[in-house]
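*** Query protein ***
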Amino acid sequence: MIKIFLIFSLFILWLPNVSANDLPTPRWVTSKNTINCRASYITDEEGKAMGSIKYQYVKKYFPWEVVRNIDDLWVQARDPLTDDLCFLFRPILSPKRAAITKEAVLGYNNPTEKKVVAKVEKNVHGMILKADSAFILFEVYLEEEGKKSKFYIPKNKVFGIYPNEIIN
């Protein structure tokens, strides 16, 4: 048992330390739940955030563009709808991908056939399920019907993904 513990301990020490500075910027992330957009990332001696709250976002999986890694607890990010920069608490961020439509757009059954299956308004929020070079598979929750709908929309018509990104 001691041998296993020693081997495991040595293995852990050998692994490279991944810090905030190792993550790429810019990059898209989402908020896991309600998140405060803060004017600064100053904390007190107990680690409690002291920066004033500029806005509070209550939309789960709202897309944010991280423009700067501050440390292991904070990032500076941009709200895609307002271009406002603020500081976000990193543990509340998720790698799940979401998008918001930039303008009214048509949704298709697939990228090659292009049979229109949806008309999507500007600022519609949805999840990115996959993406190729030109289209994303976009999933939206239809509150009135209580169900989800999936369709393809052009990648360049949304905030939340870069033109060169592919998601499988």
Summary: The first helix runs from residue 2 to 14. The chain has two domains: 19-96, 99-159. The chain has a mean pLDDT of 87. DSSP finds one helix and 14 strands in the chain.
